[in-house]
Fold this sequence. Notes:
Elements: H1 5-13, H2 27-30, E1 37-39, H3 65-78, E2 83-86, H4 88-96, E3 101-102, E4 126-130, E5 145-148, E6 155-156, E7 164-168, E8 174-178, E9 185-188, H5 201-212, E10 223-224
Parallel strand pairs: 1-2, 1-10, 2-9
Antiparallel strand pairs: 3-6, 4-5, 4-7, 7-8, 8-9
The chain binds manganese (II) ion (MN).
Amino acid sequence: SRRPRAYEVAARRAGAPPRPLSLDEPTSAALDGVDGLLLTGGDDVDPALYGEAPHPTYDVSEPGRDAFEIDLVRRALAADLPILAICRGLQVLNVALGGTLIQDIPSEPGGLLQHDAAGPANTLAHSVAITPGSCVAALVGPGESRGVNSRHHQAIRALGQGLVVTGTSPDGVIEAAGVPAARFCVGVQWHPENFKAGEFDRLFEGFVDACRRRPERAGGSPRPT
Ligand code: MN
Protein backbone atom coordinates (compact mmCIF):
# COMPACT_ATOMS: atom_id res chain seq x y z
CA SER A 1 0.00 0.00 0.00
CA ARG A 2 1.09 3.57 -0.64
CA ARG A 3 2.59 5.62 2.14
CA PRO A 4 0.50 8.79 2.48
CA ARG A 5 3.51 11.00 3.01
CA ALA A 6 1.94 14.33 1.96
CA TYR A 7 -0.81 13.89 4.57
CA GLU A 8 1.73 13.18 7.27
CA VAL A 9 3.79 16.24 6.34
CA ALA A 10 0.69 18.46 6.36
CA ALA A 11 -0.48 17.16 9.74
CA ARG A 12 2.98 17.61 11.21
CA ARG A 13 3.17 21.18 9.86
CA ALA A 14 -0.10 21.90 11.68
CA GLY A 15 1.43 20.65 14.93
CA ALA A 16 0.19 17.09 15.09
CA PRO A 17 2.60 14.22 14.54
CA PRO A 18 0.36 11.55 12.99
CA ARG A 19 0.32 7.85 13.55
CA PRO A 20 -0.82 5.88 10.50
CA LEU A 21 -3.26 3.11 11.25
CA SER A 22 -2.92 -0.40 9.94
CA LEU A 23 -5.82 -2.32 8.47
CA ASP A 24 -4.71 -5.17 10.73
CA GLU A 25 -5.61 -3.24 13.88
CA PRO A 26 -9.01 -3.96 15.43
CA THR A 27 -11.20 -0.88 14.98
CA SER A 28 -12.44 -1.28 18.54
CA ALA A 29 -9.01 -0.20 19.82
CA ALA A 30 -7.65 1.85 16.90
CA LEU A 31 -8.99 5.17 18.21
CA ASP A 32 -8.01 4.67 21.86
CA GLY A 33 -5.94 7.59 23.08
CA VAL A 34 -5.98 9.55 19.84
CA ASP A 35 -7.45 12.99 19.31
CA GLY A 36 -8.67 12.97 15.75
CA LEU A 37 -9.23 10.96 12.61
CA LEU A 38 -7.74 12.02 9.27
CA LEU A 39 -9.25 10.07 6.39
CA THR A 40 -7.00 10.10 3.33
CA GLY A 41 -7.48 9.66 -0.40
CA GLY A 42 -7.40 6.37 -2.23
CA ASP A 43 -9.35 4.16 -4.55
CA ASP A 44 -13.11 3.67 -4.79
CA VAL A 45 -15.55 2.62 -2.09
CA ASP A 46 -17.27 -0.66 -3.01
CA PRO A 47 -20.62 0.46 -4.52
CA ALA A 48 -22.30 -2.57 -2.95
CA LEU A 49 -21.98 -0.64 0.31
CA TYR A 50 -24.53 1.85 -1.02
CA GLY A 51 -26.61 -0.65 -2.94
CA GLU A 52 -25.29 -0.31 -6.47
CA ALA A 53 -23.56 -2.55 -8.99
CA PRO A 54 -20.05 -1.42 -9.92
CA HIS A 55 -19.45 0.91 -12.86
CA PRO A 56 -16.81 -0.42 -15.32
CA THR A 57 -14.34 2.18 -14.02
CA TYR A 58 -14.49 0.86 -10.43
CA ASP A 59 -11.00 1.02 -8.86
CA VAL A 60 -10.99 -1.59 -6.12
CA SER A 61 -9.44 -0.49 -2.81
CA GLU A 62 -7.16 -2.48 -0.53
CA PRO A 63 -9.03 -5.49 0.90
CA GLY A 64 -10.75 -4.55 4.14
CA ARG A 65 -10.15 -0.81 3.86
CA ASP A 66 -13.79 0.17 3.21
CA ALA A 67 -15.16 -1.67 6.23
CA PHE A 68 -12.25 -0.51 8.41
CA GLU A 69 -12.71 3.17 7.60
CA ILE A 70 -16.51 3.12 7.72
CA ASP A 71 -16.35 1.58 11.19
CA LEU A 72 -13.78 4.18 12.27
CA VAL A 73 -16.03 7.02 11.05
CA ARG A 74 -18.98 5.71 13.05
CA ARG A 75 -16.84 5.24 16.16
CA ALA A 76 -15.24 8.68 15.78
CA LEU A 77 -18.61 10.43 15.39
CA ALA A 78 -20.04 8.53 18.35
CA ALA A 79 -17.05 9.63 20.45
CA ASP A 80 -17.20 13.23 19.13
CA LEU A 81 -13.68 12.79 17.77
CA PRO A 82 -12.76 15.44 15.16
CA ILE A 83 -12.67 14.18 11.56
CA LEU A 84 -10.91 15.68 8.55
CA ALA A 85 -11.90 13.74 5.44
CA ILE A 86 -10.01 14.22 2.19
CA CYS A 87 -11.10 13.02 -1.28
CA ARG A 88 -11.90 9.30 -0.84
CA GLY A 89 -12.20 10.17 2.85
CA LEU A 90 -15.18 12.42 2.11
CA GLN A 91 -16.73 9.61 0.06
CA VAL A 92 -16.16 7.14 2.90
CA LEU A 93 -17.73 9.61 5.35
CA ASN A 94 -20.79 9.95 3.12
CA VAL A 95 -21.26 6.21 2.63
CA ALA A 96 -20.77 5.60 6.36
CA LEU A 97 -23.72 7.95 6.95
CA GLY A 98 -25.94 6.21 4.39
CA GLY A 99 -25.22 8.37 1.36
CA THR A 100 -24.49 7.37 -2.24
CA LEU A 101 -21.79 8.30 -4.75
CA ILE A 102 -21.52 9.35 -8.37
CA GLN A 103 -19.45 6.38 -9.52
CA ASP A 104 -17.82 8.05 -12.52
CA ILE A 105 -18.08 11.77 -13.16
CA PRO A 106 -17.14 11.58 -16.89
CA SER A 107 -20.03 9.15 -17.41
CA GLU A 108 -22.58 11.57 -15.97
CA PRO A 109 -24.88 13.44 -18.35
CA GLY A 110 -24.46 17.18 -18.71
CA GLY A 111 -20.80 17.54 -19.60
CA LEU A 112 -19.33 18.01 -16.16
CA LEU A 113 -15.89 19.55 -15.70
CA GLN A 114 -12.62 17.63 -15.75
CA HIS A 115 -12.16 16.52 -12.13
CA ASP A 116 -9.27 14.14 -12.71
CA ALA A 117 -6.67 16.66 -13.78
CA ALA A 118 -3.22 15.74 -15.02
CA GLY A 119 -0.04 17.55 -14.06
CA PRO A 120 1.58 18.43 -10.75
CA ALA A 121 -0.41 17.54 -7.65
CA ASN A 122 -1.18 21.16 -6.82
CA THR A 123 -2.44 22.06 -10.31
CA LEU A 124 -5.55 24.23 -9.99
CA ALA A 125 -8.32 22.43 -11.89
CA HIS A 126 -11.51 24.32 -11.07
CA SER A 127 -13.01 26.66 -8.53
CA VAL A 128 -15.17 25.82 -5.52
CA ALA A 129 -17.92 28.08 -4.24
CA ILE A 130 -17.68 27.84 -0.47
CA THR A 131 -20.93 28.11 1.51
CA PRO A 132 -20.76 31.33 3.55
CA GLY A 133 -20.85 30.75 7.28
CA SER A 134 -19.96 27.07 7.01
CA CYS A 135 -17.19 25.50 9.02
CA VAL A 136 -15.06 25.12 5.92
CA ALA A 137 -15.55 28.81 5.02
CA ALA A 138 -13.70 29.80 8.18
CA LEU A 139 -10.81 27.52 7.24
CA VAL A 140 -10.10 28.12 3.57
CA GLY A 141 -9.61 31.86 3.70
CA PRO A 142 -11.49 34.96 2.59
CA GLY A 143 -13.81 34.99 -0.37
CA GLU A 144 -16.47 32.57 -1.46
CA SER A 145 -14.62 30.98 -4.36
CA ARG A 146 -11.31 29.16 -4.22
CA GLY A 147 -9.24 27.44 -6.87
CA VAL A 148 -8.54 23.81 -6.00
CA ASN A 149 -6.75 20.81 -7.39
CA SER A 150 -8.87 17.84 -8.43
CA ARG A 151 -7.96 14.17 -8.76
CA HIS A 152 -11.17 12.25 -8.41
CA HIS A 153 -13.63 10.50 -10.68
CA GLN A 154 -16.25 10.00 -7.97
CA ALA A 155 -18.20 12.40 -5.77
CA ILE A 156 -21.16 12.54 -3.39
CA ARG A 157 -24.55 12.00 -5.04
CA ALA A 158 -27.10 11.61 -2.23
CA LEU A 159 -25.95 13.08 1.08
CA GLY A 160 -25.63 10.86 4.11
CA GLN A 161 -27.58 11.61 7.26
CA GLY A 162 -26.40 14.72 9.08
CA LEU A 163 -24.13 15.90 6.28
CA VAL A 164 -24.58 19.29 4.64
CA VAL A 165 -22.96 20.62 1.45
CA THR A 166 -20.40 23.34 2.15
CA GLY A 167 -18.84 23.74 -1.28
CA THR A 168 -19.60 23.01 -4.94
CA SER A 169 -17.74 23.33 -8.23
CA PRO A 170 -19.31 25.36 -11.10
CA ASP A 171 -20.80 22.16 -12.59
CA GLY A 172 -22.58 21.37 -9.33
CA VAL A 173 -20.31 18.60 -8.07
CA ILE A 174 -20.14 18.49 -4.29
CA GLU A 175 -16.60 19.50 -3.33
CA ALA A 176 -17.02 19.98 0.41
CA ALA A 177 -19.42 18.68 3.03
CA GLY A 178 -19.50 18.37 6.77
CA VAL A 179 -21.55 17.42 9.80
CA PRO A 180 -22.49 20.67 11.56
CA ALA A 181 -23.74 18.83 14.63
CA ALA A 182 -20.30 17.32 15.24
CA ARG A 183 -17.49 19.02 17.13
CA PHE A 184 -15.46 19.06 13.91
CA CYS A 185 -16.31 17.00 10.86
CA VAL A 186 -15.03 18.58 7.66
CA GLY A 187 -14.68 16.88 4.29
CA VAL A 188 -13.15 18.21 1.09
CA GLN A 189 -13.01 16.55 -2.31
CA TRP A 190 -9.74 18.23 -3.30
CA HIS A 191 -6.25 17.57 -1.93
CA PRO A 192 -5.18 20.33 0.51
CA GLU A 193 -2.14 18.27 1.52
CA ASN A 194 -0.55 18.94 -1.87
CA PHE A 195 -0.20 22.70 -1.29
CA LYS A 196 3.07 23.50 0.40
CA ALA A 197 2.92 27.31 0.40
CA GLY A 198 0.22 27.48 3.07
CA GLU A 199 -2.80 27.73 0.78
CA PHE A 200 -4.85 25.26 2.80
CA ASP A 201 -2.89 25.04 6.05
CA ARG A 202 -5.90 26.40 7.95
CA LEU A 203 -7.84 23.22 7.18
CA PHE A 204 -5.23 21.15 8.99
CA GLU A 205 -4.76 23.76 11.73
CA GLY A 206 -8.50 23.94 12.35
CA PHE A 207 -8.61 20.17 12.62
CA VAL A 208 -5.70 20.13 15.08
CA ASP A 209 -7.28 22.98 17.09
CA ALA A 210 -10.46 20.90 17.42
CA CYS A 211 -8.39 17.90 18.50
CA ARG A 212 -6.76 20.00 21.22
CA ARG A 213 -10.13 21.27 22.45
CA ARG A 214 -11.45 17.81 23.20
CA PRO A 215 -12.29 17.78 26.92
CA GLU A 216 -11.38 14.14 27.42
CA ARG A 217 -8.11 14.48 25.53
CA ALA A 218 -5.90 11.55 26.39
CA GLY A 219 -2.60 12.91 25.13
CA GLY A 220 -2.35 11.14 21.80
CA SER A 221 -2.16 12.78 18.43
CA PRO A 222 -4.25 12.81 15.28
CA ARG A 223 -3.74 9.84 13.05
CA PRO A 224 -4.39 9.41 9.41
CA THR A 225 -5.66 6.05 8.28
MN1 MN B 1 -13.11 18.31 -8.28
